Structure formats: structure tokens, C-alpha cells
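Pasting as-is:
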Amino acid sequence: MKRATKKIPFSPKDFLSVVNDGRTQSKYLKNQTIYRQGDLADSVFYMQTGKAKVTVFSEQGKEAVVAVLGSGEFFGEGCMAGQALRLATVVALTTCSITRITKAEIIGVIHTEPAFAELFISHLLARNSRVEEDLVDQLFNSSEKRLARTLLILANFGKEGEPEPVLAKISQETLAEIVGTTRSRVSFFMNKFRRLGLISYNGHIEVHRSLLNVVLHEKPKLKSQLRKGDI
């Protein structure tokens, strides 16, 4: 009697790291474009490592940063909902390792592998919540609070694993684009955060958990006056 072969459990992590006809893996350098607004939308991307920004350009040429992506996130999933062209541009903020999955490949896996379908649905729900939070942030919060929230997101607070430092490669100009303010305002608030002990700066920006106080409306008192050129 022929013994039945035991099926190996499906691993979403292995699926996203293995290359085949429907999946490719590429590295992108800082400031390299992953895809542009108006490009054909025929695949979904998964950020293995690194960070990237999502920007939208108006017909008048104005640019707005609408999201920051980090490791463990899918993006470009609009093609799954019938989006024919990319609605935004994605540019690497740091060196990134990214898996590209064709639309046909990801649809097939969603239909056959419940573990991956659950992972992907969880991502979509989390993304929806994040968009709502971003909208509230832009409409009601000050630029100081938006900067604090951006730094916390870049340091992966609220995600699994230990928070990581924000690399010095992410400049104050880039932070200003993300927050929607000027570089001088970002510099002022960064100085304030450091004097309060909410961040450290020694070759890279280290975000401390106490920065959450700014987002949660707590207002720690500044013990001494800020000095120009602290950062």
C-alpha cells in the first residue's frame, strides 16, 4: 500500500523570499524609483528590508508625500482592485530589498493558501487604519506632532520586534516633505525633541519611547532654552 506523502505547511515568509516565474527580488538604492505614477499596475510589491516614500504629483507639478513604507509591508496592491495605472510614485529612502509578485501569482496563492490570504487581508485592514490615521494627522494635528508621529513610524514603533533607529540618511529635507512643513520648522522641533531627551543624535537619530508623549498630547516641560545649531 502506497504511503500518503505529508504536505509541507505553507510558509508566507518562504513564499515571499523564493524567486520563480511569478516572483522576483531586487535591491534598490537610496533615491532610486521603484515605480512611477502612471506606470502599468500589474504586480504587488513586498518590502523585505528598507524604507520608501510614496508621493503623488498633481497636474501642476506639485509633489506630496502621502505615506512611508517599511519592512514587512505590501504596496502597489491597487492592481488587485482593477487599478490599471499606478496612482503614486514610490522612491527608496534607504537601500531596499523588495519582492515583486505578479497579479496572477498573488491571486492564485490567495485562492489556494489560507495562511497567505489571512496575512494579506490583515495588511489591507492595517493599511486602511493607517490611511485614516494619516488623514486625521494632516487635518487636526500640528506640524510638531506630525513630525513626532513620523519619527515613531520610521523607527517601527507599534510593530513587532524592537524599535530601530532612524538612519541619518533620512535628511531633514525629506522629513519636511513627509510632514508637510519647512526644513527650518523640522530643525526647530528636532532640537526641541533632543533637549527634552525624546531623541538622541550621534551619527543617527535614536527615537526614544518617551516621544510617544508628544503624540499622546502629554507636554513635557523644557528645562532650558534651546540653542541654535543643536542638530
